[in-house]
Amino acid sequence: MAVDVRLSGWWDELRDSLWLVPTLTVLIAVVLPPLLAELEPLPTWLPPDLVFGGTPDGARAILSQLAGATITVLALVFSLTVVALQMAASQFTPRLLRTFLRSRRVQLVMSGMVGSAVFSVGVLRLVRSEGEGIDAFVPRLAVTAALVLSFVAVGLLLYFIHYVTQHLRVDVVMHEIVTFSTQQLAVVPGDRETIPDRLAPDPPAGAVPVWARRDGFLQLVDIDRLSDAARAAGVRLRLRPTLGDWVTKGTTLAWGGGNDDDTGPGGRDELSALVHRHVYLGIDRTESTDLAFGLRQLQDVATRALSPGINDPTTAALAVTQMSSVLCRYAAHPLGDDVVEDEDGQVRVAAPRPGFAALLELAVGGARRYGRTDPEVLAALLTLLIDVAEHVADSADRGEVVAVQIDRVLASAELDDPVDEERVARIGRVAKETLRSGSRVATVADAT
Prior knowledge:
By secondary structure, the protein is α+β, with helices and mostly antiparallel strands. The chain contains 16 helices and eight strands.
């Protein structure tokens, strides 16, 4: 139990790193040439025209050229990667860097380039010329494989250039964020029959604080094992931070209480160890089980596009539209705090999660504040609320949250043109009527 959550956190960091897959590829490229050399002489059924048939000197020349050219191309790939990261950070948001680095396509290209160069060098050291009692030896199959890998490396370079140019398009970036964000719903408990967000109870009476032992973002909580451990220890726990929140060392990470024994210094230490064994604090925020992170990335794109230095309301409106896709999926799913109860209905462990109101405010708030003077952004926000209203019209709690946001968007509008004012007001009326009826009563184009 103590290792699972830490291994999971470490594995997430390794999996999203840029060096893990290339390193594994290098190890394979080092081991493979001697194995291929063991197949010499080649079987008679293998057509000789399909394998390298040159001299040792010719093999050395080819392999040296391949290794040098591949390393040169690898330097180009690294340069393109750095440029892509800089552009993603400056144009969109620095929080997209992890999204780019974890891309399996990027890791595949880097692995192919590095593996091809290392494989050529590994084959080169096996080539021997005749002299002083040494027989000439050319691992023909390995040399042929090196030639094939060089063509693969060229194809990977062309693919990577295509991928980078496509990946720097804002609509492609946002689509990937939406796809990954909606996948996180699979790890959120959804077996409750009621849609209203569940709120965790306050810390139990006489609860003692558990202080964080290190700084970091709360990335993972193994709530099932934590509840089992808390039940075995006879304590009840309530975590303070929400997944994705920053936790400062020495501040309250959780509250614990309910133990029959006196929770003195020794009991407090044991309680702290119990909690820390089942949570993971990382150096950066990740998408793992964090429903708000994708919306935060899209909101960053929208607010950055609305900054005076960029002034791109079209991109801001597009980001708002993409957030609508995420929120409509969240709207039909149970949200709120994650609570584990005992058979008697008493709460054993409670872990905060963002509710529907918090997620909707995260999606709408920034664009509402910074785009209040742009009719296109306001129209996009109201259209988002119309989309969400169709999904929450049968839920009084969530419907009220949407109604409040519609009023806040309309109240924040600062438009000088009467035509723009009337257009936004009409879309607002459509949003309110959609919320009342449960389905769209008109298109936004009709409302304009």
